[in-house]
C-alpha cells in the first residue's frame, strides 16, 4: 500500500466533488491500485487548512457547506493565509490538484513542479496561455502534469490524444466543447429567445453569473487551444479565432432545424489553425444536454469519435481523479 | 535518438501494413518521439529472416508480395527455420510484435517476457484464454504487454479502459466489435440472403475463407472477453455466452428495419457476465461499414461513446504501431 499526499486547491463545487469521490471510493483505490490518498491541505479563497496527518474530508465538506468558507474551521484545524505559491512551497505533498479558476495559476503550477510535485488540473488558462513552458518544465523534471478535466470533463479526449493514437498523425479535430452554449442553442430551437435561454441556464446552475466566458466562445476557445497543443504543437489562445453565439438568432436556429440541422458552437482544430464559431451541423456533432463530442481525423485510423459528458460535478471529478490515480501510479514507478 | 530493435512475427496483410507505416513514417517517429525503429527479424510461416543490423523493409515487402514467402529471399539474407519460441530466444530485440493468428502464441509471448522483451500484439487467443497469466508475468517483470489492436483495431478502447477512466467503476459495456457480421447484416437489410452476403464478404476480402470465426461470434467473443479482463477482472472465453448470426433471417432483419432498428452482433460486458448475441439496436450501436463502437457506462462519467474503425489494414496497423511507440517510450523511462 502506497500513501499519496495530496494538496487540493479549490473547494467549490468541483473541489468538493473530488473530495467526495476520494471519500466514497477509498476502498476501490486501495484494492484496485494499492494507493491510499491522504489529503494534507485544502485551500479555498478564505485560507488554507493544513494537517500533515491528513484532513477529515467528511468534516471539511460539512464546514464548507454550512459556513461557506474553510476559515470558519478554527476549532480543530489551523487555517493559514498562504498565497498559493507559498502553500505549494510550505506543504509537503506528492500531488497538487488545482480545481480553481485562478488565471495566474501557471506561476504556482511551475513552482509546484520545481518543488518536485506532480500537478493535476482542471484549470484551463495556465495551459491555454503557457502550455509550452509548463509541459517543458514537467518533462525536464520527469513529473506528471495532467489535465484531462480541462477539456470534455472526464471524457478522456486528452488521454486519447496524448497517450494513445501515437502512430497516427492527426489531420483535423471537429468538436463541440461547451455544454452551456449547447443548452442555450437547444432552448432557442424550442423558440426561447437568447436572453431568456441564458437566464434559464443561470437558474439551473449551467451558466455562471457572468455568462460571457461561455457565450463569447472563450471557454471553448481555451479548450480548442489545449487540443491543438496536444494534437499538433504548442500555441496560445491569443493565436486562435473565436466567435461566440451572441449574434445567433432564433430565426437562424429554426432555419437550420428546418433543414434537419442544428447550430452548435464548433471548434475546428487543424495544424496552426484553430477556430471556434457557430456552425450548422448534423450527425454526431449535433449533441444535446451536457454531452461534448470530438471527431478526430487522422492518417491511419481515419475517423474516430469520442462522445461523453462535457460538464457536471461528478463528471469533472472523474477526470481529476483519473489523473490523480495516473500521477500516483507514475510516481511509484 | 534511441534505437528500438523490433522482432516482427507475421508478415501477411497486417504485418506488411505495419512495416509500411514504419517505413513511411520513419521521420515522424524520429522527430516526434526521438525513436528509430530497427526491424531485426521478420517471421512468416516459411521462415525467419534475421539481420542484427536491420532489415530493409522495402525489400522485405517486395519479396513477400512477389514470391509469397520470406524464405525465397535467400540471395541476401539468412533465413532460419526457428519455431517462434526459438526465435524469441535467439534474436536480440527490445519489442516483439505478434500479428499472427497463432492460437498457441501465449507460450512464446510468455517466453518473450521472460527474455525481458516487451510484447505488442493484435493476436486475440493468447489474451482470451490466458490473460491473467500473461499480464501477471508482464507486471512482475515491469514490461509493457500491449494489445490495443486486438479489439476495435486502432480505435483506442483498450487504452481508454486500461490507462484512462482510472477513477471510474465500469458498470456495463455494450459494443459492436465485428465488422464482418455488420457487413453481412447490412447486406441482408438490402434483401441479400445470408449465404450470398457471406460470399460477397469473402470476395471483398472482408470475410476469411472459413468465415465461421466471425459468423459464429467467436471473434466478437474473444474481444468481449478481453474487454471484460480490462474493465473488470480476468476471465476466459470458455466462461462467456456466445451466439452468432447464423440463425438470423432476412425476414427478421427487415422486420427490425421496419421499426427503425437494425440487427447487429452486440457484446454486452458486465462484471462476471459476458454475452455476445444478435440484438435489435438503434442509435449509436447501429453502426455500418467497418465501424466498431463501444458504449461504456460508469459511475462517475455516465455514458461514454467511442466509435471508429474496427477493421482494415492501416487501421489495425494504427493500433499496433501506437503500442510499439508506447512500449518504446516506457522502455526508455
UniProtKB/TrEMBL annotation, chains A, B:
The active site is at residue 223. The keyword Oxidoreductase applies. One of its GO terms (molecular function) is homoserine dehydrogenase activity. Its EC number is 1.1.1.3. It is an enzyme of class 1 (oxidoreductase). L-homoserine binds at residue 208. Residues 10-148 form the Aspartate/homoserine dehydrogenase NAD-binding domain. Residues 156-325 form the Homoserine dehydrogenase catalytic domain. Pfam families: Homoserine_dh, NAD_binding_3. GO terms for biological process: methionine biosynthetic process; threonine biosynthetic process. Pathway: Amino-acid biosynthesis; L-threonine biosynthesis; L-threonine from L-aspartate: step 3/5; Amino-acid biosynthesis; L-methionine biosynthesis via de novo pathway; L-homoserine from L-aspartate: step 3/3. Keywords: Amino-acid biosynthesis, Methionine biosynthesis, NADP, Oxidoreductase, Threonine biosynthesis. SUPFAM superfamilies: Glyceraldehyde-3-phosphate dehydrogenase-like, C-terminal domain (SSF55347), NAD(P)-binding Rossmann-fold domains (SSF51735). NADPH binds at residues 100, 124. The keyword DNA damage does not apply. NADP(+) binds at residues 10-15. Belongs to the homoserine dehydrogenase family. PANTHER family: HOMOSERINE DEHYDROGENASE (PTHR43331:SF1). This is Homoserine dehydrogenase.
Amino acid at each position: 500500500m502506497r500513501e499519496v499526499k495530496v494538496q487540493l486547491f479549490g473547494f467549490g463545487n468541483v473541489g468538493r466533488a473530488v473530495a467526495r469521490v476520494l471519500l466514497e471510493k477509498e476502498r476501490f483505490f486501495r484494492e484496485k491500485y494499492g494507493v491510499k490518498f491522504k489529503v494534507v491541505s485544502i485551500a479555498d479563497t478564505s485560507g488554507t487548512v493544513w494537517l500533515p496527518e491528513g484532513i477529515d474530508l467528511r468534516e471539511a465538506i460539512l464546514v464548507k457547506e454550512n459556513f461557506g468558507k474553510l476559515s470558519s474551521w478554527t476549532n480543530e484545524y489551523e487555517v493559514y493565509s498562504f498565497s498559493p505559491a507559498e502553500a505549494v512551497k510550505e506543504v509537503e505533498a506528492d500531488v497538487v490538484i488545482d480545481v480553481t479558476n485562478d488565471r495566474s495559476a501557471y506561476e504556482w503550477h511551475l513552482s509546484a513542479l520545481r518543488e518536485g510535485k506532480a500537478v493535476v488540473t482542471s484549470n484551463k488558462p495556465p495551459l491555454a496561455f503557457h502550455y509550452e513552458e509548463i509541459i517543458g518544465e514537467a518533462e525536464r523534471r520527469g513529473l506528471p502534469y495532467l489535465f484531462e478535466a480541462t477539456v470534455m470533463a472526464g471524457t478522456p479526449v486528452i488521454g486519447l490524444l496524448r497517450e494513445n493514437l501515437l502512430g497516427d498523425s492527426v489531420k483535423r479535430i471537429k468538436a463541440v466543447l461547451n455544454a452551456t452554449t449547447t443548452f442555450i442553442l437547444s432552448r432557442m430551437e424550442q423558440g426561447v429567445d437568447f436572453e431568456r435561454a441564458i437566464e434559464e441556464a443561470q437558474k439551473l446552475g449551467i451558466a455562471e453569473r457572468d455568462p460571457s466566458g461561455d457565450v463569447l466562445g472563450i471557454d471553448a476557445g481555451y479548450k480548442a487551444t489545449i487540443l491543438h497543443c496536444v494534437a499538433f504543437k504548442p500555441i496560445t489562445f491569443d493565436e486562435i479565432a473565436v466567435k461566440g453565439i451572441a449574434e445567433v438568432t432564433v430565426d437562424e436556429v429554426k432555419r437550420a432545424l428546418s433543414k434537419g440541422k442544428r447550430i452548435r458552437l464548433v471548434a475546428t482544430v487543424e495544424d496552426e489553425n484553430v477556430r471556434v464559431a457557430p456552425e450548422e451541423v448534423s450527425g454526431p456533432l449535433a449533441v444535446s444536454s451536457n454531452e461534448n463530442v470530438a471527431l478526430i481525423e487522422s492518417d491511419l485510423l481515419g475517423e474516430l469519435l469520442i462522445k461523453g459528458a462535457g460538464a457536471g460535478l461528478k463528471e469533472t471529478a472523474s477526470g481529476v481523479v483519473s489523473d490523480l490515480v495516473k500521477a500516483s501510479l507514475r510516481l511509484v514507478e
